[in-house]
Design brief:
By secondary structure, this protein is mainly beta. The chain is built from 6 helices and 19 strands. Strands 1, 2, 3, 4, 5, 6, 7, 10 and 19 form a 9-stranded antiparallel sheet that branches. Strands 11, 12, 13, 14, 15, 16, 17 and 18 form an 8-stranded antiparallel sheet that branches. Strand 2 and strand 3 form a beta hairpin. It is elongated.
Length: 417
């Protein structure tokens, strides 16, 4: 055999080098030829870093995650690039091709196809959000009627050996897009009397006409103001909430025969500035149809949902007196708040607060469970239809969409700039 002609002596070793780092290869073989063009491996810590570097197309990207020992590990993730933001998707479902009834180890390390249906992995989530990193979490949902909802809040992190979900409080208000059509709590008293105020109350009937009686289907009275000029009725929802409409009802007593025929709606986040549904001023605000009798509830939906903490209703025309009982329609908040501090559970690692049952085993999913009356669980059985009665808690569920059959889910996170 003829020896090949070489301009260098071959290098043999029984300790091979396994790496894709070009500089490390050059150091190992001591071959730093200045004429060679060195191509360095690009490393980014998350999807926002990829976006900031000019990669604005959604798809699979490699990121570098620093472990607790300081070592960097590469992991492929799906980045959803939108506007000026790079969202790192850590859960996606759009069909039943991947089984989400998995072990603790599988949820820890991740499973599925990162370009399709998958769970990124609890350990990756913990490493990415460690040391109090400031991240925003976002959930996008689509139901079988193609209605969409998006909810996000900040800051978000996964902590501890049991992968507890932590939601903090920051300047970023929870926001919701899409429609929920939920009653927000006037009728069932989840909105307390202390959150209901008015411009005035009729002095001769302070109890019967109180603000607290301005609730839909109240049997103790109704709200009626002292005068019939420029009066208003206000509800404090405590947090920024999506409001989609109003249910209006007249006086409780048939003998009164009083109701609001027309009204406008104002809203605010902090009461220092007020906005008007359907217009830019009180004069241009949309005038909604009220009642034609004292007892029949009339529902009026806004053309576009609003985001507000305070809702103020102003009667404009009325029968006898501007008397009313109401309910607000929109999206109930509290989903992220209810998950806050909960630890992750699987059928083989029970960390919920139920002392009798393993909720993860019962509903066949890995999630941040409190008890087995599950109000939210995006890792539930894909094909199992949700029972709106609340007796059956399997399937994909979300608190603000009770009874909806959710067919697409995405959970994603973004490092705040």
């Amino acid at each position: 055999m003829t020896e090949p002609k070489r301009s260098y002596e071959p290098y043999y070793t029984d300790q091979p080098l396994f790496t894709d780092d070009v500089e490390e290869i050059h150091d190992y073989f001591e071959c730093h030829d200045e004429s060679m063009v060195t191509i360095k491996t690009i490393e980014h810590a998350d999807c926002q870093a990829w976006f900031d570097a000019g990669s604005t197309t959604s798809g699979v990207y490699p990121i570098s995650i620093q472990s607790h020992t300081g070592m960097k590990e590469k992991k492929d993730v799906y980045c959803h690039m939108e506007d000026d933001k790079g969202w790192l998707v850590f859960q996606r479902r759009h069909d039943g091709s991947v089984n989400f009834t998995r072990t603790w180890l599988e949820y820890k390390e991740g499973f599925g196809d990162v370009s399709s249906v998958f769970w990124l992995g609890n350990e990756a989530l913990r490493l990415l959000t460690k040391n109090g990193s400031n991240w925003t979490i976002r959930v996008d949902l689509t139901d079988e009627e193609s209605q969409k909802m998006s909810l996000m809040t900040s800051p978000f992190s996964i902590t501890g050996d049991k992968y507890a979900l932590s939601i903090g409080v920051s300047g970023i208000e929870p926001t919701v897009n899409g429609t929920c059509h939920q009653r927000l709590g006037m009728e069932d008293n989840t909105i307390p009397d202390s959150s209901i105020t008015a411009s005035s109350v009729y002095k001769n009937e302070l109890v019967y006409c109180s603000e607290g009686n301005g609730r839909l289907n109240s049997v103790d009275g109704n709200w009626c103001p002292e005068t019939d000029k420029a009066e208003w009725f206000q509800v404090d929802l405590k947090t920024q909430t999506q409001v989609e409409g109003v249910i209006m009802q007249g006086s409780y007593a048939s003998g009164d025969g009083e109701w609001v025929k027309k009204y406008t709606v104002e809203y605010s986040s902090h009461q220092s500035q007020w906005y008007y549904v359907g217009g830019t001023s009180q004069d241009t605000a949309k005038v909604f149809d009220g009642n034609t009798d004292h007892e029949t509830p009339v529902t009026s939906m806004f053309d576009e949902p609003i985001q507000a903490r305070y809702i103020r209703i102003r009667p404009t025309t009325y029968e006898k007196w501007p008397t009313m009982r109401i309910e607000l329609i929109g999206c109930k908040g509290g989903v992220f708040e209810s998950l806050n501090g909960r630890t992750f559970s699987n059928y083989d690692n029970d960390n919920d607060n139920n002392d009798v049952q393993n909720c993860a085993g019962l509903v066949k999913a890995g999630w941040w469970f409190d008890d087995c009356a599950v109000e939210s669980n995006l890792n539930g059985e894909y094909s199992h239809r949700v029972n709106a009665s609340g007796i059956e808690y399997r399937g994909i569920r979300w608190f603000t969409w009770p009874g909806r059959q959710i067919v697409k889910t995405e959970m994603k996170m973004r490092r705040n700039k």
